[in-house]
Give the backbone structure.
Amino acid sequence: MLDFLVVTGGSQKTGWNFLGILLVVAIILYLVFIVQNIRQRRIKMIIKEHKRFTWKNTLLSLVEVVAFLVASVWMFNNVFLDNPDLEDSSRITSSVEYKPLVLETGGSGNSSYVTIDSAKKKVGSQEYTFYIDGQKYKVPGTQASVAFGPKVLDVSAEKIPYNDKVLAKKDQQYQKAYVAIYTAVYKKN
């Protein structure tokens, strides 16, 4: 009784990745500009006007820094905190592919559909190895889960919007030894 689910992250097949990199570079260049501009205005104020403080200079510097912080927070939010709803068809396109697992006979008398390699380090990790159509696949444990027993999905795979009826049908068809590969891709906007 083995159900093996592979969750693959989709990729944006658009120029948005390139645009994002350009925006990050622009924000870094803007930071360099701010530092140079504040330094230049401050030196000019001290040498030409013989003043150490003016409200005009301080407010201009404050506006530049606030603009930088707003742009940085916006980019951080879009790059690191964007977690789209997998059922939101307006943002992503998703598909599920089902493939039967091939029984691996390792020659040592043991056979298995999936082998789990665990790293015993400070931060533990797992890697699943399995065969489909004669090809060997290795998937990190963060992108896959194994379901045993009568339940088709385990706890970590519950977040993926699988169709329970289709999974039950594939359970029957592949004798509870199959891979369900979920792929999500951002839509072009």
Observations:
- The chain has a mean pLDDT of 84.
- Residues 16-80 form one domain.
